[in-house]
Design a protein that fits this description.
By secondary structure, this protein is an alpha/beta fold. It has 13 helices and eight strands. It folds into two domains: 118 residues, Glutathione S-transferase Yfyf (Class Pi), Chain A, domain 2, CATH 1.20.1050; 138 residues, Rossmann fold, CATH 3.40.50. The chain is 46% helix and 10% strand.
């Protein structure tokens, strides 16, 4: 059993979306989770572009941070879908002894060793693992006026078979968390869709079409906001969509339900302002 977790904030949240970090740390604290910032953290080598350019660098980079957590007897808690996938996929690859030995040859030069004993969790998984009764006990503010369209995001769901905690089709975790917090769920993710962010640097037209299609469906469901556990999806919805449908990151909804002050939640920093 670990002595707590190291919080891996990633790159996007601390550099561009610090208010999501604020609400996340508030929620983590209210849950009674011991989560300190991961010392020596670097980029996870995001899974879309950078990993494909230098796979060996990706494995060593992730293994170094996992080894730090192992050395200190802690697990890793992520706030980002892409970071979560990068960590989990690296752990899956490093189950092969040949790969692990090669990585540890590099880590040995800095006094570290990856053993494969660490556990990596996403904040979505962590909150959902509390269960309905314990999460509802933390709720102190009525958020029933929030009608969400859950958007779990690709990197928590796929690829299958590597140890991701959510199922790739008809996922339920995000909708469960929203319901347990007191919000209303107005859209079912029977067939989860991509926000288009992953192809934005390759085909802007295609990316925009994907974004508008999924946003249009969410708006047509009667939802008054999109709910996502992915900061990259959050940015895509908040900055690029044309429907004007507000978006909430998972910890923002939870912080609201737990009675956090406005300066902790940070809704004033959204481009598309909430109407509830």
């Amino acid at each position: 059993m670990s002595d707590g977790s190291y919080l891996f904030r990633g790159c996007l949240i601390p550099t561009r979306l610090p208010y999501l970090e604020s609400s996340s740390k508030y929620v983590i604290d209210r849950m009674g989770i011991d989560a300190k910032d991961l010392p020596g953290a670097s980029c996870c080598v995001e899974p879309i572009g950078l990993k494909t350019i230098a796979e060996d660098t990706w494995m060593v980079t992730v293994a170094r941070m996992l080894a730090i957590a192992e050395r200190d007897g802690r697990d890793v808690l992520t706030l980002c879908n892409g970071c979560y996938l990068s960590f989990v996929e690296a752990m899956h690859v490093l189950r092969t002894k040949e790969r692990a030995d090669k990585v540890n040859e590099v880590l040995d030069q800095i006094g570290l060793e990856y053993k494969g004993d660490v556990k990596v969790r996403h904040i979505l998984d962590l909150v959902h693992s509390l269960g309905e009764e314990r999460l509802r006990a933390l709720v102190s503010t009525d958020v029933s006026m929030v009608h969400v369209a859950p958007h779990t995001g690709c990197h928590v769901l796929r690829p299958s078979g590597i140890g991701l905690v959510e199922i790739p089709y008809a996922p339920r975790m995000l909708a469960d968390v929203a319901t347990w917090s007191g919000a209303r769920v107005d859209h079912s993710e029977e067939w989860p869709e991509c926000c288009g962010g992953g192809v934005s640097s390759i085909d802007e037209t295609l990316s925009s079409k994907m974004l508008e299609r999924v946003t249009g469906r969410y708006k047509g469901s009667g939802a008054n906001c999109i709910l996502t556990p992915c900061p990259f999806c959050f940015s895509q919805f908040d900055l690029r969509q044309k429907e004007g449908l507000p978006v909430l990151y998972i910890s923002e909804l939870l912080a609201m339900a737990m009675g956090a002050p406005a300066n902790v939640v940070g809704l004033k920093y959204h481009r598309i302002r909430t109407n509830f």
